[in-house]
Structures are given as structure tokens and as C-alpha cells.
Design goal:
Helices cover about 35% and strands about 20% of the residues. By secondary structure, the chain is α/β, with parallel strands linked by helices. Strand 10 and strand 11 form a beta hairpin.
Length: about 400
């Protein structure tokens, strides 16, 4: 069952946070070295035939133009093809998807995918000023991530009775998970009251409902499944993936309480993997804002439409629940270095499926995990990846 033409044989994640003492290239190299060192049976770095570099904000943040050559020089792939990928918040997972397609095509047997981002090189105010000037001069003027996601949250509250307490419960859950993750940016726990009392950002989001700006990197080594046993006795397989887009501007969207791109990407990924949401053991979803995770539950088929708030209220998405979501702490706690986020989610799922997640470990029954991103202007791009594996 499942596509299973590509295996993930190694993965690495740097510390996430305000890493002013490290450059983009240093972070990328750190994650890559970790990925190489994690390959069970070892790997010759010279065997890597190509690279895919997921990064979004390099030019805006004042870094060197982040072409593929930047990664090639940073990790020792000079002379080999290295492609820079940018696709909004799903940049990292899209880079993984492109690496999978390259391996599955037979062009390469081994590729490296690295996502890296430096979001703290500019103060938050300056970053908002820069991003607010981009896009359509009227329809996108002065927009921020919060103003893009807030309308879906408020409409969801109106349509389905989702409450601020439901949203705060997501934050409490993910911050508790993040407190167990030594690489998370936010490792302190919070209460529902602290979330509700934190300063307002954009109705209905307070400061603690929002993921932080983050520096960090992550990397995976992808391998042709037919030769994966050379590198690991227990590789994680890419069972399926989906990517989709939807209408760009909010007034063009048919459903204001969900994201059509996620729904379509999930449909394709489940079909490719040959499973239903009921067979998942865990998921790492794009919880850039508290309400977004609730909407993701519904878009990804974890529960029926409108039931996302009750799902978190009932504890179904805790580490001990029916379907643990964001056991790593998610974007809300671990952080969101945009180009690295999707790649890091892949690594987190792999560690869980192999029983290597230490304090964050959840019960693995069926051997399936799901990774998800949503983003881009007006949340119009989404990627979903389904991985399969079992503990050693």
C-alpha cells in the first residue's frame, strides 16, 4: 500500500530561535551534517547527487541572494545541481516533494533537501513594513500573516461556535509539547488564562495565539527505495503527497471557514498513500495561529466540519489522545523558520515513526504520519506528505 518509491534515510534539525550568531549557510550546513550522521549504516557525502534548497526570506532579510549555489557552497555540493525552491510557507515541504519527484523519476538515487531561514535579521516592525508593501497595491496593501488568517478564524467562530478558549487550548497543548523539545524556540508552558490575557494582535488573535519569528534549518536525505537497504534496515517511506492551490484573494474564496488548497492536497495524498485519516498515528500541521490548527483538523479529515474546536477541547489531539497533533510543539512553540518548517516536520514524523522522539514520543500503531503546510498570499498554497514506517 502506498507510493513508496522514495525513502527518507536521514534527517537533522538545528536549534530553532533567535540565532544571531549564525549565518544562513551555517545553519544549513549544521542541519545537513546532522542528516548525514543520522544515516544508520553511514553514507559517503560524495554519493549525494543533487540538492534542493528551501528558503523564502533571504533577500528581504538582507542576506546574499539565496540561489542554489549558496547551498552548494555551504554543504559541499559544488559542481552538482542544486535548485532553490520558494513557495510561501510550504517551501520546505515543496522542496521535499521536488526531491522525491527527482528520485522517483530515476534521474538521481540520492538527494539532499535543506530548508533554512533567518527571520530575525530585521526587527519585527521592519519585516512587517517590507512585507506590507508587497503584492497587489490595494487588495494586499498592509496585510500581515495575522490579517490573512484572522478572517477564517472569526467566520469559523460565527458558523460553528468555536471559542477563544478552544484556540487557547491549542496553544496550551503545543506549548506543553514544546517544553519537551530541546530545539524548540518556546520551551515554557502557558495557561489558558495567560493566552487570553496576552496583548491583542488582530482579532481574534492575541500574541500567544501567534507563532514566533524564527531562525533555523532542517535537512533530509532522500533515497531511491530500491537501494534504501544499503543505508538503513528500517527506512521511512514516502507513502504519498499532495500539493494544491486555490484562489488568491479572500473575496474569491468559496469557503471562508476552511482552506480549499489543504483539502485538495490532503485528498491527493491520502489517495496516493492508499489510506484514510483514521489510519494516521500522528500529524504535524501548520499551526501558525491557534485557530488555524483547529481549521486544519477539519480540512485534513481528522473530524467533521465544525468539530475542530470540540476535538481539541476533548483532548483528542494531545500526545496521549486519539490523534496526536504537533507533538514537537508545532509552529506555536517550536517556531516557524519558513523555508525550514516543512522539512523539520518531515524529520519530526520520521523520528516518531522510528520510535526516536524521546520525551515527545507518541504511540505508533499503524505506522503512518502526516505533515502539512498552508500559506502563500491569502493562504492559497498547501502541501501534505504522508510517511510510513515502524519503530526499530
Amino acid at each position: 500500500m502506498g507510493w513508496n518509491r522514495v525513502a527518507v534515510i536521514g534527517g537533522g534539525i538545528t536549534e530553532f530561535g533567535e540565532l544571531f550568531d549564525q549565518e544562513l549557510e551555517q545553519l544549513a550546513a549544521d542541519a545537513y551534517i546532522q542528516a548525514l550522521n543520522s544515516v544508520d549504516k553511514g553514507i559517503d557525502p560524495n554519493a549525494i547527487q543533487a540538492g534542493y534548497f528551501g528558503t523564502v526570506m533571504g533577500t528581504l532579510q538582507g542576506n546574499e541572494i539565496p540561489s542554489g549555489a549558496v547551498l552548494a557552497n555551504a554543504i559541499g555540493l559544488v559542481g552538482k545541481p542544486v535548485t532553490r525552491i520558494e513557495n510561501g510557507c510550504p517551501t520546505g515541504s515543496e522542496a521535499v516533494r521536488q526531491g522525491c519527484l527527482a528520485v522517483a523519476s530515476g534521474v538521481f538515487d540520492l538527494v539532499a533537501v535543506v530548508g533554512a531561514e533567518k527571520l530575525r535579521e530585521l526587527p519585527t516592525k521592519d519585516s512587517l513594513l517590507e512585507s506590507g508593501r508587497l503584492g497587489h497595491p490595494t487588495l494586499m496593501y498592509a496585510r500581515t500573516a495575522a490579517t490573512l488568517f484572522a478572517p477564517a478564524a472569526t467566520r469559523h467562530m460565527y458558523e460553528y461556535g468555536t471559542t477563544r478558549e478552544h484556540m487557547a487550548a491549542v496553544v496550551v497543548k503545543n506549548r506543553e509539547n514544546g517544553s519537551l523539545n530541546p530545539k524548540a524556540q518556546r520551551q515554557s508552558q502557558v495557561t489558558v488564562e495567560e493566552v487570553l490575557d496576552s496583548p491583542l494582535v488582530c482579532t481574534p488573535f492575541n500574541v500567544l495565539d501567534c507563532c514566533p519569528q524564527t531562525d533555523g534549518a532542517a535537512a533530509v536525505i532522500l533515497c531511491n527505495a530500491e537501494i534504501a537497504e544499503r543505508y538503513s534496515d528500517n527506512p521511512v517511506m514516502v507513502a504519498g503527497f499532495g500539493a494544491a492551490t486555490e484562489n488568491l484573494f479572500i473575496h474569491e474564496k468559496v469557503d471562508q471557514t476552511g482552506f480549499a488548497a489543504t483539502q485538495e492536497a490532503a485528498r491527493v495524498a491520502y489517495a496516493m498513500a492508499g489510506i484514510s485519516p483514521k489510519e494516521l498515528d500522528l500529524a504535524e500541521v501548520h499551526d501558525c495561529f491557534s485557530a488555524t490548527e483547529i481549521i486544519n483538523y477539519e480540512d485534513l479529515g481528522f473530524c467533521e466540519k465544525g468539530a475542530g474546536g470540540r476535538m481539541v477541547e476533548n483532548g483528542e489531539t494531545k500526545r496521549s489522545g486519539r490523534l496526536p497533533v504537533s507533538a514537537s510543539g508545532g509552529l506555536l512553540a517550536k517556531g516557524h523558520p519558513v523555508g525550514a518548517t516543512g522539512v523539520s516536520q518531515i524529520v519530526e514524523i520520521c523520528n516518531q515513526l522510528l520510535g526516536r522522539a524521546e520525551a515527545q514520543q507518541v504511540e505508533i500503531r499503524n505506522g503512518y504520519g502526516l505533515q502539512h503546510n498552508i500559506g502563500g498570499y491569502s493562504c492559497a498554497v498547501s502541501n501534505v506528505t504522508i510517511l510510513s514506517g515502524s519503530p526499530n
